[in-house]
Amino acid sequence: MVNAAIVGLGWWGKTLVEAVQHVSQDIHFVAGTTRTVTPEVQAFAHEQRFQLADNYEALLANPTLDAIVLATPHSMHAMQVIAAAAVKKHIFCEKPFALRLEDAEAAVDATNKAGVTLGLGYNRRFHPEMTKLRDRIRSGDLGTILHLEATMTFPNALMLKPTTWRANRQETPCGGLTPMGVHAVDGMIDLCGHIDHVYCQSFRRVVEINADDTTSILFRMRDGMSGYLGTMTATGPGFSFQVFGSKGWVRLEGMTHVAGASSEERRTRLFRSCKFQPSKGEAQVWEAGRLDVTRAALDAFAQAASGGPAYPIPTDQMIHGVAVTEAIVRSAASGRVEHVA
After folding, report:
1. 110-147, pLDDT tens digit by residue?
2. Most buried of the four, 72, 148, 152, 222, by CB within 10 Å?
3. What is the Cα–Cα distance from 85 to 305, expressed in whole angstroms?
4. Residue 197: helix, strand or coil by DSSP?
């Protein structure tokens, strides 16, 4: 059993705790810290039976802790990962891993030198429907892959207060890219390899905070297929991911992490209806099974930290995902196609 500490107790930090506490055989939260300790946070820590520490440094100095789980602002991730690696603690980091390529490379280098496990919270990779889609592609069942397409939407930006860190344009460039779109980018990397270049347009239509609410991105993969991602943060919640091949296409639909939805709903209903349309023949339609993908990601991390199978997201893909994110942000600012470093 891995003894872990949660860093950041906003709505998603709490969701991470709820996914595994008292039910996982692999990981258990025994401590935590957050920037603002409210009565609600204190009540949550009491209910989940973990101790609140004064700050991050106190957690790093705690010899009983095996691992740190980061649910903090994106710009803090790299330095927090490096600090945890320096004291030989395993790290699970929420997405996006970092906002700059050089920070991601430094963080991975620190964990490699320390010999600790690094996990990243791209939990959609763990759903059986993504595994089935990956197997279809690699077996040739879809033929030559032509195009990948994803749309991710939620209404969260309509409810954000200007003082929250997620309303900070520096923390969340290109609107829905960092809170949800990077999941689709990671899926494209997982299924079809590295991305060569991108083009992005991103702007604000209706939200009151100083952030974009409408973002669209074009991709070209190194292996030749194209991709598209659209995110909107001021409309109804939804998620779709579709892969088009010369032998047919597969479409997965579901929901996004909607603030205010129940923890169980956010964790288990990301995938719902699925469809395979072959180039010739009848379509196949089915309903995705329920799986707590957040627990699956944390369990996989804990098993890797305990000497089990390696965490299934390789660190080179973690780094490449950051390089793609950085190129998208550059493209939105320049108005040009940007190559991925």
Report:
1. 999 999 999 999 999 999 999 999 999 999 999 999 99
2. 152
3. 13
4. strand
Residue 338, helix vs strand vs coil: strand
Instruction: Indicate the SS3 state at residue 308.
Output: coil
Sheet containing 338-339: order of strands:
284-287, 271-278, 248-254, 238-245, 145-153, 226-232, 214-221, 195-203, 338-339
Contacts of 264 (CB under 8 A, 6+ apart): none
Judge if 2-123 and 126-295+322-339 fold alike in CATH terms.
Answer: no
> Crossing angle for the helix pair 101-114 and 315-334, nearest 10 degrees?
170
pTM beyond 0.85: the answer is yes
From the options 3.90.550.10, 3.30.360.10, 3.40.50.880, 3.40.190.80, give the CATH code of 126-295+322-339: 3.30.360.10
CB 254 within 8 A of CB 271: yes
Closest CA to 9 of 27, 29, 30, 36: 36
The percentage of the chain sitting over the pLDDT mark of 70, rounded to a whole number, equals: 99
Pairwise CA distance, residues 341 & 338, whole Å: 9
Fold topology of 2-123 = Rossmann fold (3.40.50)
